[in-house]
Request: fold
Amino acid sequence: MRLIAVHLPDRIVTDIQALVEQGLYPNRSEAIRIAIRDLLKRELWDQNMGKKERMSEVVG
Reply:
């Protein structure tokens, strides 16, 4: 894994910490990793999957 530095507004850090304190995530880093993964899945990976499926329909 690579380490990156990110500046976040206090409100977001507070809300992420609240999720950790509720036991939903083991720590803030994991909560942020999951949020980024879900964003990429929704915005990028799922779209690319759809393109690959459409291409295989055209080619196949």
